[in-house]
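Predict fold of Rrf2 family transcriptional regulator; 147 aa.
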Amino acid sequence: MDGMGANSRVTVAAHALTWIGLYQRRGHEVATSEQIATSVNTNPVVVRRLLAQLRKAGLVDSRRGAGAGWALSRDLPTITLLDVYEAVEPGPIFALHPATPDPERVVGHGIAPVLGVAYDGVETALRAELARTTLEDVLRELLQQAP
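Predicted 3D structure, encoded as C-alpha cells:
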C-alpha cells in the first residue's frame, strides 16, 4: 500500500477502528474517512483503502448517501489486534526466498527449513500476543492516559 509497511498498516487500522469506536460511543452513527485521517494525520485515501480491507474482513460497514461514513460492524471488546492484523496483512510476517536457492550449496539447500522454524515461532508468538489485546483494551488504556 503505497510505501506503507505492514507494521504501519496495522497501526493505522487499529487507530482508525479505535477512533470510530470512541466516536460512536459519543453518540455519532458514522465517521468519515476525512475525520479519521485527521486523527491519524494521513491522507483520507490511505484511510479509505484500509477501511475497505477492514470492511472485507467484517470489522466495519460503510454507508453511502446522506449521512455517509464508516461504522464498526462489531463492538470494540470483540475485535482483537489479531483481527486487525489479519485484515490488513493476511500473509505471514516473513517470507522465504521467492526463487529456489541452489540446492547444491550448503546454505541454499538448508536455509528455508532452518529459517522456517524460526519464522514459524515468531509468527506463533506474535499471533498469540495480538489475540490477547482487544480494541476495548486499547481504548481503555488511551482514556486512562488522556490529560
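The chain has a mean pLDDT of 89.
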